[in-house]
Amino acid sequence: MGEERLHVALLPWLAFGHMIPFLHLAVALAAAGLRVSFLSTPRNNRRLPKIPPHLTSLITFVDLPLPPIDGLPDQAEATVDIPEDKVPLLKNACDLLQDPFKDFLAQKSPDFLLHDFFHHWAVAAAHDVGVPSVFFVVFSATATAFSGPPEALMEDGGKKSWPSPESMTSPPEWLPSGSTVAFRRREAELLYLSAFAMTSMGLTDVDRMRLAVEGCAALAVRSCREYEGEYLDVVRRIFRKPVIPVGLLPPPPPPPTGGDRDDNWGRIFGWLDDQPPKSVVFVSFGSEYKLTESEVHELAYGLELSNVPFLWALRRPSWASGSDEEALPEGFQTRTEGRGVVSFGWAPQLEILAHPSIGGSLFHSGWGSIIETLGYGHALVVMPNIIDQGLNARLLVEKGIAVEVERGDDDCFHRNEIAKALQMAMVSSEGEGLRRKARETATVFADRDLHDKYIKEFVDYLLKTRNNQSIEGN
């Protein structure tokens, strides 16, 4: 009888910026022959992208019903469903998934648990039944390295290493010599408020990160040596555990969907078809950060001043009343007609990025979006706001593959600086070096054979670890 398939359980935090890379890892592991259980709430599981049909027999979606919490809206099962001030309630609800998770462990007995930063209780429950855990880090190695060694995070709730937001605005001593990776003041203030906020169980996110690292057998990082090898070395040195890069997990190329587009996107892609190659900048800021009215308006005026053709995918802001168009400055769409398009709501991002007329991206520098965008060699203009975005932006600029929009003295983004950065990245002769480096970087980010090799190395680690456990248990 052949050896039974390795069975891994994946448990992401309830944010699509975490669930999507966990899903990409699930697909990659299933393609390598592993059996995968993907654990999330019912509504989140239903909203995830479809998996390839030939892998459906190897990936099982396991529903963990989210208990109701006072103040948390019905059907709110991910951070995208709620304003920022409700996220602590979602964390409280997530902590109540412990019992159904323990039931899953008892019934299915996976060989490994691949968990997120949040789930220290899942690591403990898995350990109690002899299931080793691997912390799957969805952030870049650069951002992970910045956080520092676990013992530094442990003392005084992490505030010994990071006593104030200002302490996060210069590179820590453990980063590579000459590194420019650090937060700007506004980024640090936003992160500090969330990272050190007490949630249920008397823990901050910093506490949870430390417990995730301490409790795991190894860390699997969504990264590759070819892009940030020196920061992977730092993670390995400061965490003193096996650190296994699993590659960048690039999403599959978009299928040809021309016949399936609705009328709106049919018109938009028709407009893209008429634009010169590499001339249009795609503008999108993801699902986690909600742009303020001032930020939307400064973005609009910056695009207008730049004279660069643009396609802007804008989620309808909660502060906008009336029609979608009322979120934009008065007359903006009339003044930019023919040169730019604004689409409200969901956008087929991968299909847009793959279009030959797209040459750049103005975005928040989230790690997943960086991977998607650099896979096509586009020039990058970055406007980071929250979590790891600022750290990612500093490395992109350090490597010469992005222009960062400078904040004003008030720590806000302004139209003139936005227009200046767009001109530099998209059309000026000064930006040719940046555009060339972006194209060169695509040879790493789009190399599926390279990233498949990283997955194979990770699978080999899991198989070797299971086999060693079997030998020790006999």
Specify Rg, calculated over alpha carbons: 22 Å
Task: List the strand order in the largest sheet.
Answer: 3-2-1-4-5-6-7
H/I helix tally: 19
CATH class of the largest domain: Alpha Beta
In what range is the share of β-strand residues?
5-15%
Low-confidence stretches: 470-474
How is the CATH topology of the largest domain named? Rossmann fold
User: In CATH, what is the homologous superfamily of the largest domain?
Assistant: Glycogen Phosphorylase B
Q: What fraction, in percent, of the residue positions are helical?
A: 40-55%
Query: What's the average pLDDT?
Result: 92
**DSSP E strands, number:** 13
The largest sheet is:
7 strands, parallel
What's the architecture of the largest domain, going by CATH? 3-Layer(aba) Sandwich
* Global structural class: alpha/beta
Outline type: globular
N- to C-terminal distance? 19 Å
Topology overview:
Elements: E1 7-11, H1 16-31, E2 35-40, H2 42-47, E3 59-63, H3 87-95, H4 98-108, E4 112-115, H5 120-128, E5 133-137, H6 141-147, H7 150-154, H8 185-195, H9 205-215, E6 218-221, H10 225-239, E7 243-245, H11 263-273, E8 280-284, H12 293-306, E9 310-314, H13 332-335, E10 340-344, H14 349-353, E11 358-363, H15 367-374, E12 379-382, H16 389-398, E13 402-404, H17 415-426, H18 432-445, H19 448-473
Helix pairs in contact: 4-5, 5-9, 6-10, 12-17
